[in-house]
């Protein structure tokens, strides 16, 4: 075993006189020794002994590295020290204490200071690798012989094969020259690192590196859990910003609106805004980004093209987005696509395009020999065995590179190669990895542990938190890249997963410690919300043996995905092995896992509005073991189900149970979520002010999560709308757009847009409302929300009715399947066209549809209609009629009077306004009474009520609602631009009621 002894003269005196100097020196020496794989053995009176337990006798490199590096540290402080010495020893069978005592006697006998000495044992092993001189019977190291240690150059340069590069260029030549429409060059094989370097070499002359006009690169990684990150992993932030220079004015507006989405992709997992993304939104943003990149290439000039690396690892969602982008780009920019894979298969979405397939070759025996001549030193070439080398490496270029590295280091493979089960072509890589400095092996190991979640910047950030120096990290990264252990400079991912396992083997117990330190960082970061919960982070905790914390991280991850509305991703995570309980686990842990899965699955069904499946689940609830938190989580989801079913009494009971359980467990985000559901139950019972108080209670609590706070804010806005406080609604929606960024709020912001548009409609600003509905339609299309698009489209058409453009509106109404709301809008159009009989028959058809409020509540949106989405949250859920039903009946009576059926019209309006209990929060009470007053005014002496009295009631209700609007201009709009309010006001003035 190798030992390294350091002697610092007058150490005790220096400790008293220069304690900071000594402390710094000792720390630097220890760090340098540890970096080369040494372990501290003993320290006494200025003598420091380190041993190299992982090194075999012929693995001299790390020992010499440590000796020369340590001497450099001591030499830097030579003027402040009273001499120093470095001794290398090789011993077998001695205890560390015996070695320390023997080397103490040795160094005290040496004839000079400030040099490196070799003990007798070490001199015999190392004489071939260092120049020495004899000084009084002792062997002094003069310098190191580097002839056999000449570096091979970078792995990237080594693995490039000129013939392969030429072949790829030849295949692309017809596309480059315009002889054929560009297609896809599929380069496949089992050595992706070699494929990558050769592909990049092949396209190098097609780019314009001088101006930075490079082909976009999409990179797939094994076990990539993020569906979008592959799209932008290799896109520099500056390229994202520069893209606007190559877009048209209209495209620029769209891109700048979406740029934040692409920036979020770059920040994962440190940016909590990630959840605002949707496939449709990323599709739009990334298509514009690729458009800009390809236009830039054309303008430089360069050949437009892109690279898709490791396509077999890219998730289906990302391939779908890429395909959509190519469908847009191909007709005009016609990019060449180079795709790499480990097999001769295209992703199914890319089928149908012209494909040129090229299987990436391995090195032949002749090429192997040629490279040996070009890269190896003469002594290394003498040690080369061609047949054995080809067999060991299978001709894989990266494996050959590591084989040559080992030869350059004088490895005797027949005697010294460590036996390993299942050794493969990268066995030489394992041997080369074993010679890495300790901190390089650590970075490689940690890079593998994070499974591609972190790029170079993110990994450095984590390692910095763990105490690493940024400067040294850059050096380590560059060296690992040069040696071929890292895949590329951006992803900071090992070029082979096997290297990570080998790094763990080399590090031994240190790998266990590192895994624990990384797990500590993950758990600490999740607790402070510094990172977004992710399956990769949960896996880090699991591998570190932190089973319960891993389950908690999965709960957070599932909750985050469900907050975002990512139900498909949540369904994947529910089946994850971390959430599989085993019989050997503690019963409470099994119970927690079962409840977490139950809650996540039930919540997913509710978000999908699959209420039948949800009810089947609640019929078999899990055992909570009396845990307040678990009991509360189950009760909260069951309460949401009852709320969506319209069974408000049961919902109230369950939500109360959840609130009480969370209070017992400690108030927090779950308690706040339960308070919101309690408020929704009160809203469904038309207790508007009480419901708003609960929402405000949560909104004022800064300790709860962003999702819950933002949801509370929007629920308050719903209350404001139902109260008729339209000024505050418009202000609140603008605030939501500026501030909301928590999970799932792309859908909530779409809903907020509906509230804004409907408020504008109620104010009679029909053109502004139409514009707002159309904006919502565009958002709904981007988010992939067809039901929301339908509602917004129909309401935009309703605006056209009130703007006088009934023909176009009718065409839109006729394009959808009829329901009560569509038929009501059709009747309004017929009335405006003075087709009274047609309007009446349409209204009678509308009354045939169900009259009860559509189930609504919880977290899902009811996009069955514009009234159902908002008004049905509160009105008509526990008796009485819905707002839409009342409007249809009142308007039907009004139209009926216009057809001469006054008696029937009067009876209908009287029944609605006098006998039926209209909800006090129904926003159209003034309209119902106005319609009745008009009918009464046209009837004879047998009228049921006095028309002036009824009109007075209408004016009273209108004034009450107008008084809730803050801005004077909006009050005026509500009274005189709203079609029916204006007619009411005119009638009131005619009767001197104003």
Describe the structure in brief.
With 994 residues, the chain is of the alpha/beta class. It is 60% helix and 7% strand.
Keywords, please?
994 residues, alpha/beta, seven-stranded mixed β-sheet, five-stranded parallel β-sheet, 12 strands, 60% helix, elongated
Helix and strand arrangement:
Elements: E1 2-8, H1 11-17, H2 19-35, E2 39-44, E3 47-52, H3 61-76, E4 84-90, H4 96-109, E5 116-118, H5 120-126, E6 130-135, E7 138-144, H6 155-158, H7 162-176, E8 184-188, H8 192-203, E9 217-219, H9 229-232, H10 237-242, H11 249-267, H12 279-299, E10 305-309, H13 316-329, E11 336-341, E12 355-359, H14 365-375, H15 378-382, H16 386-393, H17 397-408, H18 413-416, H19 427-434, H20 438-449, H21 456-465, H22 470-482, H23 497-507, H24 509-527, H25 535-543, H26 547-563, H27 567-574, H28 587-607, H29 611-618, H30 628-645, H31 648-665, H32 669-684, H33 688-699, H34 706-723, H35 726-739, H36 745-762, H37 766-783, H38 786-802, H39 806-814, H40 820-832, H41 836-846, H42 866-870, H43 883-898, H44 902-915, H45 925-938, H46 947-962, H47 968-976, H48 979-990
Parallel strand pairs: 4-5, 8-11, 8-12, 9-10, 10-11
Antiparallel strand pairs: 1-3, 1-4, 2-3, 5-7, 6-7
Helix pairs in contact: 1-2, 2-3, 7-8, 11-12, 12-13, 16-17, 17-19, 19-23, 20-22, 20-23, 20-24, 23-24, 24-25, 25-26, 26-27, 26-28, 27-28, 28-29, 28-30, 29-30, 30-31, 30-32, 31-32, 32-33, 32-34, 33-34, 34-35, 34-36, 35-36, 36-37, 37-38, 38-39, 38-40, 39-40, 40-41, 40-43, 41-43, 43-44, 43-45, 44-45, ...
Description:
The chain is of the alpha/beta class. It is built from 48 helices and 12 strands. The longest helix has 21 residues, at 279-299. The radius of gyration is 38 Å and the shape is elongated. 51% of the residues are buried. Residues 414-422 have low confidence and may be disordered.
């Amino acid at each position: 075993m190798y030992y390294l002894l350091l002697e610092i003269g007058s150490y005790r005196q220096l400790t008293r006189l220069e304690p900071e100097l000594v402390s710094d020196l000792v720390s630097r020496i220890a760090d340098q020794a540890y970096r080369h794989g040494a372990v501290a053995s003993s320290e006494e009176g200025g003598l420091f002994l380190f041993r190299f337990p992982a090194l075999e006798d012929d693995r001299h490199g790390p020992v010499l590295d440590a000796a020369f590096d340590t001497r450099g540290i001591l030499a830097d402080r030579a003027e402040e020290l009273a001499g120093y010495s470095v001794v290398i020893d090789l011993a077998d069978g001695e205890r560390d204490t015996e070695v320390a005592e023997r080397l103490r006697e040795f160094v005290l006998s040496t004839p000079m200071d400030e040099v490196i000495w070799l003990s007798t044992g070490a001199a015999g092993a190392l004489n071939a690798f260092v120049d020495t001189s004899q000084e009084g019977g002792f062997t002094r190291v003069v310098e190191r012989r580097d002839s056999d240690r000449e570096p091979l150059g970078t792995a990237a340069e080594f693995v490039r094969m000129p013939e392969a590069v030429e072949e790829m260029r030849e295949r692309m030549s017809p596309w480059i020259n315009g002889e054929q429409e560009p297609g896809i060059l599929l380069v496949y094989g089992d050595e992706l690192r070699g494929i990558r370097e050769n592909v990049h070499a092949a396209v190098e002359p097609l780019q314009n590196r001088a101006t930075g006009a490079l082909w976009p690169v999409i990179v797939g990684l094994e076990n990539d859990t993020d569906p979008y990150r592959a799209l932008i992993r290799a896109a520099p932030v500056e390229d994202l910003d520069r893209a606007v220079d190559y877009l048209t004015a209209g495209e620029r507006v769209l891109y700048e609106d979406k740029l934040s989405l692409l920036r979020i992709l770059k920040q994962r997992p440190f940016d909590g805004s990630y959840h605002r993304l949707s496939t449709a939104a990323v599709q739009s943003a990334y298509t514009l980004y690729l458009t800009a990149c390809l236009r830039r290439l054309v303008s430089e000039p360069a050949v437009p093209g892109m690279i898709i690396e490791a396509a077999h690892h890219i998730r289906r969602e990302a391939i779908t987005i890429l395909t959509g982008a190519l469908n847009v780009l191909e007709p005009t920019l016609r990019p060449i696509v180079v795709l790499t894979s480990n097999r001769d298969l295209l992703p199914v979405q890319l089928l149908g395009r012209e494909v040129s397939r090229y299987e990436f070759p391995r090195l032949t025996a002749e090429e192997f020999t040629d490279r040996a001549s070009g890269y190896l030193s003469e002594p290394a070439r003498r040690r080369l065995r061609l047949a054995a080398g080809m067999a060991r490496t299978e001709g894989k270029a990266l494996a050959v590179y590591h084989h040559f590295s080992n030869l350059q280091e004088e490895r005797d493979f027949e005697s010294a190669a460590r036996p390993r089960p299942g050794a493969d072509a990268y066995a030489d890589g394992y041997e080369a990895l074993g010679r890495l400095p300790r901190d390089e092996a650590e970075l490689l190991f940690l890079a593998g542990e994070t499974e591609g979640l972190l790029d170079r910047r993110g990994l450095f950030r984590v390692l910095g938190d763990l105490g690493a120096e940024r400067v040294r990290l850059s050096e380590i990264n560059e060296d690992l890249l040069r040696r071929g252990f890292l895949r590329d400079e951006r992803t900071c991912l090992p070029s082979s997963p096997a290297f990570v396992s080998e790094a763990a083997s080399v590090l031994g117990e240190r790998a266990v410690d590192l895994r624990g330190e990384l797990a500590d960082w993950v758990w600490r970061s999740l607790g402070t919300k510094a990172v977004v919960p992710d399956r990769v982070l949960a896996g880090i905790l699991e591998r570190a043996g932190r089973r319960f914390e891993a389950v908690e991280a999965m709960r957070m991850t599932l909750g985050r995905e469900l907050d975002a509305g990512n139900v498909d991703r949540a369904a994947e995570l529910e089946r994850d092995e971390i959430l599989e309980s085993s019989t050997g686990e503690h019963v409470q842990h099994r119970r927690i896992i079962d409840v977490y899965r139950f809650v996540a699955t039930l919540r997913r069904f509710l978000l999908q509005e699959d209420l039948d499946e949800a009810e089947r689940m609640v019929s078999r609830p899990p055992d909570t073991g009396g845990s307040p938190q678990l009991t509360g989580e189950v009760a909260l989801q069951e309460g949401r189900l009852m709320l969506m079913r319209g069974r408000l009494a049961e919902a109230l009971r369950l939500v109360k149970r959840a609130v009480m359980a969370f209070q017992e467990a400690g108030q927090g985000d779950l308690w706040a979520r339960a308070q919101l559901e309690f408020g929704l139950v009160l809203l469904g019972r038309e207790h508007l002010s009480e419901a708003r108080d609960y929402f405000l209670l949560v909104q004022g609590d800064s300790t709860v999560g962003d999702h819950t706070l933002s949801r509370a804010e929007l629920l308050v806005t719903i209350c404001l709308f139902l109260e008729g406080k339209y000024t505050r609604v418009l202000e609140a929606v603008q605030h939501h757009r500026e501030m909301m960024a928590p999970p799932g709020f792309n859908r909530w912001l779409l809903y907020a847009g509906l509230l804004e548009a409907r408020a504008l409609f109620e104010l009679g600003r029909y053109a502004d409302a139409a514009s707002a509905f159309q904006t919502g339609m565009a958002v709904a299309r981007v988010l992939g929300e067809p039901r929301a698009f339908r509602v917004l489209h129909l309401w935009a058409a309703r605006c056209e009715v009130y703007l006088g453009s009934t023909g176009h509106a009718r065409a839109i109404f006729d394009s959808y399947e009829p329901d009560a709301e569509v038929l009501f809008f059709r009747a309004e159009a017929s009335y405006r066209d003075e087709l009274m009989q047609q309007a009446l028959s349409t209204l009678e058809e509308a009354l045939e549809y169900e009259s009860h409020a559509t189930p609504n509540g919880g977290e899902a949106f009811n996009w069955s209609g514009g009234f159902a989405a908002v008004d049905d949250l509160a009105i008509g859920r526990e008796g009485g009629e819905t707002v839409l039903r009342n409007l249809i009946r009142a308007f039907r009576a009004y139209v009926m009077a216009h057809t001469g059926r006054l008696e029937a019209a009067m009876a209908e309006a009287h029944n609605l306004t006098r006998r039926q209990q209209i909800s006090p929060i129904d926003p159209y009470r003034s309209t119902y009474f106005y319609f009745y007053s008009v009918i009464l005014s046209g009837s004879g002496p047998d009228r049921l009520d006095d028309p002036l009295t009824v009109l007075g009631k209408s004016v009273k209700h209108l004034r009450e609602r107008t008084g809730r609007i803050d801005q004077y201009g909006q009050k005026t709009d509500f009274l005189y631009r709203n079609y029916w309010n204006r007619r009411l006001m005119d009638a009131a003035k005619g009767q001197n009621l104003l």
